[in-house]
Amino acid sequence: MLASSLAFIDGSVTNVALPSIERDLHGDAASLQWIVNAYLLPLSALLLAGGAAGDHFGRRRMLILGTAVFAVASILCALAPDLRLLLAARAAQGVGAAMLMPNSLGILGSSFKGEARGRAVGTWASAGAIASAVGPPLGGWLVGAAGWRAIFIINVPVALAAIIIAWRYVEESAEGEQPLDVPGAVLATLALGTLTWALTLWSSAHAGSPEVWAGLVGGVVLLALFVWIERGRRSDAMMPLAMFASRPFVGLTLLTFLLYGALGGLLVLLPYLLIVGGGYSPLQAGLALLPFSLVIGAASRLMGRTTERIGPRWPLTIGPIVTGLGFLLLVRVDPSGSYWTTVMPGMIVVALGMAGAVAPLTTAVLSSVDQSHTGTASGFNSAIARTGGLIATALAGAVIAQTGTALVETFRYAAILAALFAIASGCVAFVTLGSLTPVGDDRPG
User: What span, in angstroms and rounded, lies between the C-alpha atoms of 135 and 161?
Assistant: First the structure.
């Protein structure tokens, strides 16, 4: 939980520091998007490889190595003298997170079974939500008191504690000698990188160009080549295509992409809107996000137990729809008005909806594969979630590039779009997850 909390803290804390980094390193809308996406890109593309590497070499070993990489990269972020080196260090953080995150969850999947696994996953999700809750206000305070570089230094003691505990108390687990899919990892990285570059260029410039169209076409071609390579590798692929013969698995994949894409975009844009459009301090913007993570942290363990009894279909239908209603409430956001009446109601409803979805989604994914592929399955689902956030952040430049009333207006359009995605994800769950049984049910689903 300490190791995976690093990724959650870093994902939430950086958002409140973007305006300060922009001023200090003389960035623009596109560079702000890349501060987020330089981290999300390798995290999205390499999570599958990270989970498979844990299955192959040992999950504890990969957890410790990934945590160490993350810690070193965090120090480099804090020392970066310019934007170019900061982006390189952020990418290294993403590589470390791709190694540690799926193996954190894979260790749980291999250590617990049945109802105990549902409770363990709920506890893991709660710890991640608490870390996310601490991140924005702590990061906002650090930005105001010591500068944005301090937000990366806080990762180091957490990483050291995680490494020590894993080394002393976690048993090693691995699942055989399946070869690693290096071609698949390279193609996934190139495809996502090309698409992200093209979408970032389009959204920040508000116009198409030969470079944008070339990037989009090139990204699609690379994705097609990735699928072709994975098909040829069959069971040795980091994304075995046989998984997509399962209707619930396809549903969970689409649900994750839509829901986390909607959430990722709004969590980048809201603190930026409050700081730039409403004059909030970084600490105030961080505190504005606090209800979201606190509600998820308090409710995730309960939802894990509920999913054990009733299965994931209804929690994953109702939760995203409620999340969408919360996004619609955020259309009322006025950064210069009262936080309590324009921001907090929407945040509370979004949090309640996500609390109903986080633990059930994770449990459903782990329950859909055999134990030998828990690392790969968790890596795939996390990759889809981060890819949704990656694409949403690449498109966020259309909002970030605005100022004044135009900034507020385009944010409202983004909130409506996020609501549509979240509600659609709930509908997907209702249609596709009817055959999944509760965690403790041994009948085939």
Answer: 17
Provide the 8-state DSSP code for 275.
I
Q: Count CB atoms within 10 A of the CB of residue 192.
A: 27
> Could you say which DSSP state residue 436 is in?
P
Model confidence, pTM? 0.80
For the cut 50, the answer to whether the pLDDT of residue 440 exceeds it is no
CA 397 – CA 327 distance, rounded (Å)? 19
On the 0-12 / 13-18 / 19+ scale of CB atoms within 10 A, 345 is middle
Q: Read off the pLDDT of each residue in 43-71 and give the average, rounded to a whole number.
A: 87
Mean pLDDT of the chain: 84
The CATH number that domain 2-171+238-432 falls under is: 1.20.1250.20
Name the maximum alpha-carbon separation found in the chain.
59
Domain ranges of the chain: 2-171+238-432, 181-237
* Nearest of 345, 312, 341 to residue 328 by alpha carbon: 345
Residue 430 near residue 254 (C-beta atoms within 8 A): no
DSSP letter, residue 332:
G
In this structure, what token pair is assigned to residue 243? 């998984």
Position 445 scores a pLDDT of 38
Q: If you compute the radius of gyration of the chain from its CA atoms, what whole number of angstroms results?
A: 20
Asked if residue 184 lies in contact with residue 236, where contact means CB atoms within 8 angstroms, the answer is: no
Task: Output the CA–CA distances (angstroms, integers) from residue 117 to 59, 112, 121, 359, 435, in the order listed.
Answer: 17, 5, 6, 11, 20
Owner of token pair 């994770």: 362
176 neighbors 48 (Cβ within 8 angstroms): no
Residue closest to 271 by CA, chosen among 259, 284, 258: 284
Cβ contacts of residue 368 below 8 Å, gap of 6+? 246, 248, 249, 252, 377, 436
Judged on CB neighbours under 10 Å (0-12, 13-18, 19+), 420 is middle
Buried residues in 373-392 as b, exposed as e (16+ CB within 10 A):
bbbbbbbbbbbbbbbbbbbb
Placement of tokens 């986080």 in the chain: 358
Amino acid 169 reads Y
Interior angle at CA 52, CA 51 and CA 54, nearest 5:
65
Nearest to 140 by CA among 16, 279, 36, 35: 16
Terminal alpha carbon distance of the chain: 29
Write out the two tokens for 115.
């109802």
Q: What is the pLDDT of residue 416?
A: 95
Please give the pLDDT value at position 372. Answer: 58
| Lowest pLDDT segment from 141-155, 254-268, 391-405 | 391-405
User: What is the C-alpha to C-alpha distance for residues 93 and 39, in angstroms, rounded to an integer?
Assistant: 6
418 has pLDDT over 80: yes
